[in-house]
Amino acid sequence: MSRPAGPAPLLRRILQRGACAALVSGLLLVRQGRRDACSGAAPLNAISHWLWPESALRQCGLSARYTLVGAIIHWGASCFWSAIYEGHRQAGAPPPRARPPSRRPPAPASEVPSHDLVNALALSAIAAWVDLVLVPPRLSPGFERHLSDASLCRVYLAFGIGLAWGGARGRRAHRLPPGTRQLHVES
């Protein structure tokens, strides 16, 4: 018996896209922090300025207080934008319907539909505008104080790519042969 569509698959897509976007952009934050700032940890530390306004922006080394908290906030913000992305997708998507099996082989799992990538990059541009222009400095990401403009562009570009990649990973999981993924049985 198939599972009805509901909040669980939507939440899973939000978390998967958010995690991929946070991972890709977070890795680039570290890389660009090594180039532009005192260390790779500085941009992640700066994100925790939401909790420690002055001290977080000055921290260069790895620490649980600043780096770990900054990474968690970054992941949460990525999931927030992922939820907006999925909400937009749901609003424009036709209702699901049963389709007869296709005679065409499925697309390669690594392929990201171009409209998904374009939409994810558009959302990352909106996120950059909101984060860097619209919100007051107290609610900004903080890493913009350690990175050059070029690095910021790269980070937000990576964020959009991560959103699209997270969606492609989710689609790949649904294309696996039946015996390779966990089955859910309702009783």
From TrEMBL:
Ranges for region Disordered: 91-112
Domain of life (superkingdom): Bacteria
Compositionally biased intervals (Pro residues): 93-108
Protein name, entry field: DUF2809 domain-containing protein
